[in-house]
Amino acid sequence: MGIVERRERLKKQVRNDILQTARDIAREDGWQGVSIRKIADIIEYSPPIIYEYFDSKDKLLETIRVVGFDELRADFDRIKEIYRDPEKQLVEVAQSIWNFSVEQPEVFQVMFNQEGAFVHSKKVYQQEMDITDNPVWEMIARLRPKAGEKVSMTYYEWWCLTYGFISITMTTQPKHAIAKMETIYMEGVRRFIRSIM
Amino acid sequence: MGIVERRERLKKQVRNDILQTARDIAREDGWQGVSIRKIADIIEYSPPIIYEYFDSKDKLLETIRVVGFDELRADFDRIKEIYRDPEKQLVEVAQSIWNFSVEQPEVFQVMFNQEGAFVHSKKVYQQEMDITDNPVWEMIARLRPKAGEKVSMTYYEWWCLTYGFISITMTTQPKHAIAKMETIYMEGVRRFIRSIM
DNA sequence: CTTTTTTTCTAACGGCGTTTGGAAAGACTG
DNA sequence: CAGTCTTTCCAAACGCCGTTAGAAAAAAAG
Predict the structure, then answer these.
(1) Tens of pLDDT, residues A155-168
(2) What CA–CA distance (Å, rounded) separates A26 from A105?
(3) Alpha-carbon gap, residue A65 to A85, rounded angstroms
(4) Does A160 contact B168 at a Cβ distance shorter than 8 Å?
């Protein structure tokens, strides 16, 4: 009997609908405008239903954050396989982050607690920045084989550069000007890479 | 008669109390925990009173942001007067930002819409980052007299570096580890300055 | 003391995240 | 089929929030 399966399929679908609706509202009105009640309204359920899928609004946002980081990391892994040269890899990674922030700014905001988005727990964030098993860390390590401990420092600075540039650009630049900033960003990235080689 | 004066003195005091109470709560419980009702409770007035001093919660936060930026800029101006060498000036400015973020993290959060703090209007933020009359811009221009348009680019990157580093550090590092990051930050700043000279 | 002005608060509105208790619907059993 | 059991779902409520209206209280002016 496929009843259980159908139920589970439905559950998964509703769960995804909740996440997607949250992102949709955030894209339209900002994260300040996202409320459990609005989400419930749009997916045509009552508010309590959402609590059958997520323990709290905070956990819901954290899930969006995790999905975002997963997507980014998958792209990094893909890049690592496609290109051999660590310099090229890093340039591609930088481009990948940029594209992500342009295509899914609202997810980027949740990932980095920006623009009114706020996830209480920092665990995922810290974990994701951690050097352990991080493809970007390995790329930098390969670029500076003799740097020893400095690799971790460079890795940290890499995040500061990319994150700082994108979040300042996202916050201060009007939408039409963002495209122009891409060149400046990529130039900065390239200069950074050259400076550590 | 000094009645009017006394009243105005009182008004100024209450206004400052409101701002300071907001910052106090934020420091203790984060900006998510700051509410008009809590502020009113602490200053021992009813909530509507706060609206005689600020049009909205958003405007209240914006005022805190403005005061923060003013304080920072005053320090930059002071540095510009004390030191002649633009390289030294920039190092001191970087140190000044760092100190500010350590001493008043909650204000820093409002200034840059971090960690749940959120001011709708971006006007102040954009204005403050603008190159016009900005002491940091002039320092960089003096450091790179022949750079032409690249000065503005470098200025932008300067903000990305300092802001990116501090906000990532503030968010990911536990309190006890932040002191250790200062050296790494200042090293990064120095390397940046040298790389543009 | 009375009137006028200023200051302040109570009460309410609509919205929020979240929980409770039970109704409605669906699936299984005899 | 009816009856029972299980799952799904929601109305209503709680205690918060920002904000506003209107009345009470206090202060000043006459």
Answers:
(1) 999 999 999 999 99
(2) 9
(3) 30
(4) yes
